[in-house]
Amino acid sequence: MREAYQDKLDQLANQLADMSALVATAMERATKALLTADLSLAEQVISGDAEVDDARATVEEQAYALLALQAPVATDLRTVLAVIHAAESVERMGDLALHVAKTARRRHPHPVLAEEVRGYFADMGRIAVHLAREVEGVIRTQDVKRARALEETDDELDDLHRHLFSVIMDKAWPHGVASAVDVTLLGRFYERFGDHAVSVAKRTIFVVTGQMPGYGGSLGGEL
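The line above is the sequence of Phosphate-specific transport system accessory protein PhoU; the predicted structure tokens follow.
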């Protein structure tokens, strides 16, 4: 009986990790669509978002069933609750990749990004995808040290996001208000994607240690 129960808990974690892999691929494709004005890739992300939504629904349904039928305690209860909260964050990551893809589609066949900011978004996309893939690994391994490292990587994304504003707020910005609005919104999508990845890492630390990090503003706080 206990072995079957543990298998269900492991299945929950694996499904969440699979969701993280899906959103990593979605953001990778969305970023490429953004940088290359590739409509086909944008459409793949848009149509594929339903798979992420369905995965979250399945994870939550199974998690609530475990709560109702097994009445888990201690580490098992932490695992189930963490999966429920993390699934919401991962789904939101998928939604943010979707927003990037929809922006690329809306402006097609014209490029969304001015040359001055393309490099920023190439780097932000690379970091965002890395974060999502690290989330997958953290969930599968429950590696606390690896989970803590995500915040430092997310800081790089935040720095790029801040630097974007210095570019579009410069008086010499020649591309008009519409372009500046696109850049502002897109930058926010990537920044929030990173924040959600860090949130999932915190949930993993909570499962392993029994304490939720970050209330003092850091993944690496006292555990």
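Note on the example: The chain has a mean pLDDT of 92. The radius of gyration is 19 Å.
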